[in-house]
Amino acid sequence: MSDGLKLGLVGLGKIARDQHLPAIAKTDGIDLVAVASRNAKGDGVANYSDLAAMLAGSPELNAIVLCQPPQARFEAAVTALSAGKHVFLEKPPGATVSEVEALIALARKQGVSLFASWHSRYAAAVAAARDWIAQTTIRSIAISWKEDVRHWHPGQPWIWEAGGFGVFDPGINALSILTEIVPDRVSLLSATLEVPSNCQAPIGATLTMRTGSGAAIDTVFDWRQTGPQSWDIIVETEAGTLRLAEGGNRWFLGDAEQPVGAEEEYPAMYRRFVDIAGRNEIDVDLAPLQLVADAFLCGRHIATEAFHD
Ligand code: NAP
């Protein structure tokens, strides 16, 4: 065991098993010491049913990662920050903008690190695309994020409840890339939200946005896509067309695919967390969450047929 971060993980579910456990295992300077989950247990670590029990039983912990659905994130983050631990938030960092602002203030008061992770920003092609775009002028952007919710989110009732984000759960990944690659501030102009009659969250959404310099951004999020899935952002610029595909992991200039490094979103995020925790730094960008909040604020609601998993 290293002298670095001693981590406790909360919410041992799909993303924790798929991404967090392997990424933690390959990151220097951080060790998984304990897990708090109501219905699951981690191998080779201390296990607890909730965060309070974990903090009491494993006082050596100095960092906590929160991998539950967003509705449960705030209370747990307050508990962990109040106990003086560095905190890593899965995306989205909270169910509301104001609660994340409160967490920033609390982390600052406690002198600990707070990391709002946006995993898609660490996709293999995003940094290169951002740097290329910075050398030219954007004319327009089109985002198409279309996937099959039954394939990607089976048996996740929280995602359809208030605060569960619905199609904005994947859509916020597109918005996190958008707000990373556009050099100036993005603002939302209008939105439509298609909400199944038996749900609190949308299954489809369209957003009209603009960049600070006035370029139009048209966005479609749809969870009813069977067959080929799309996670594409097309940026028309004065220097030609740039396309980010596969959630930011591939990029093309015109038809020519550009080289990228290995795909390692979660290991890169854990390296970042270890780094900022060493300086008690806060890395929380609210821009993607603010755009989702704005869409819920001004969006026109369209009732659609009931959704059954
Ligand atoms: P999940 O498997 O449904 O939930 C994770 C764990 O959280 C569950 O196993 C459960 O553990 C606990 N949990 C569930 N509902 C809860 C509630 N209402 N209150 C407290 N704890 C609850 O979800 P997930 O797919 O891992 O997603 C979790 C977060 O990661 C979401 O914010 C999501 O946007 C993000 N994320 C997911 C993916 C993905 O591919 N799934 C990718 C990137 C990011 P216990 O019952 O054992 O406590």
From TrEMBL:
Q: Where is the signal peptide?
A: none
One Gene Ontology MF term: nucleotide binding
One family from Pfam that matches here is GFO_IDH_MocA
| Domain of life according to the entry | Bacteria
InterPro entries according to UniProt: Gfo/Idh/MocA-like_OxRdtase_N, Gfo/Idh/MocA_oxidrdct_glycsds, NAD(P)-bd_dom_sf
**Which parts of the sequence belong to the Gfo/Idh/MocA-like oxidoreductase N-terminal domain?**
6-115
What SUPFAM superfamilies does the record point to? Answer: NAD(P)-binding Rossmann-fold domains (SSF51735)
Stated name of the protein: Gfo/Idh/MocA family oxidoreductase
